């Protein structure tokens, strides 16, 4: 049985994952509107991953006999001044999610909640991958600057990400 404090923390994380979904969906629609179909596809795939993260937490709460309480999802921004700005914001967001996961892990370890700590391991690894995926994209966009040819090439490359 999950304890009440962990149940509350995980419910907050479910909300954070749903916000991640919403944020990347907003970035996807923004890029679609700006005719960057590849960036839009990459962000949509990212949004779908975030929905699956929320579902993992939801399933875990239920598996431990807890209750899920869904809260309002914050409205994300709808526009970014450049692809670089959007991907930098995505990278910063992932770093903030890594911090949240680490805090959840710290609490689980302190409470000797082995089941939750074991469950969170998947997310610790996932956050390494999330940051590792965004870091080189941000670096490439920073190098590209205003060069349209290189920007459209990267858009094409990122569009190969499967949804
Ligand atoms: Fe992007 O990893 Fe979940 O939020």
Report on the structure:
With about 160 residues, the protein is mostly helical. It has one domain (about 5-160): Ferritin, core subunit, four-helix bundle (Ferritin, Up-down Bundle), CATH 1.20.1260. The chain is built from 5 helices and no strands. It has helices spanning about 5-35, 35-65, 85-110, 115-145, 150-160. Helix 3 runs antiparallel to helix 4. Hydroxy diiron-OXO moiety binds near residues 20, 53 and 130.
Brief summary:
With 163 residues, the protein is mainly alpha-helical. The chain has 5 helices and no strands. Hydroxy diiron-OXO moiety binds next to helix 1, helix 2 and helix 3.
State the shape: elongated
Q: What summary fits the major beta sheet?
A: none
Number of domains: 1
Distance between the termini: 35 Å
Indicate the mean pLDDT. Answer: 97
Low-pLDDT stretches: none
Q: Given the structure, what is the number of helices?
A: 5
What percent of residues are in strands?
under 5%
Protein traits:
163 residues; mainly alpha; Ferritin; 5 helices; 78% helix; binds hydroxy diiron-OXO moiety
Blueprint of the fold:
Elements: H1 4-33, H2 37-63, H3 83-110, H4 114-144, H5 148-158
């Amino acid at each position: 049985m999950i304890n009440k404090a962990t149940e509350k923390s995980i419910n907050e994380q479910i909300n954070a994952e749903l916000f991640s979904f919403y944020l990347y969906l907003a970035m996807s629609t923004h890029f679609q509107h700006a005719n960057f179909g590849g960036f839009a596809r990459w962000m949509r795939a990212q949004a779908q991953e975030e929905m699956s993260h929320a579902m993992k937490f939801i399933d875990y709460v239920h598996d431990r006999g807890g209750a899920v309480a869904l809260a309002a999802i914050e409205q994300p921004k709808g526009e970014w001044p450049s692809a670089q700005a959007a991907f930098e914001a995505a990278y910063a967001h992932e770093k903030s999610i890594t911090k949240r996961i680490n805090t959840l892990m710290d609490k689980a370890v302190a409470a000797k909640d082995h089941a939750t700590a074991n469950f969170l391991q998947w997310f610790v690894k996932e956050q390494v991958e999330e940051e590792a995926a965004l870091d080189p994209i941000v670096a490439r966009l920073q190098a590209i600057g205003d060069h349209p040819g290189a920007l459209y090439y990267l858009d094409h490359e990122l569009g190969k990400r499967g949804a």
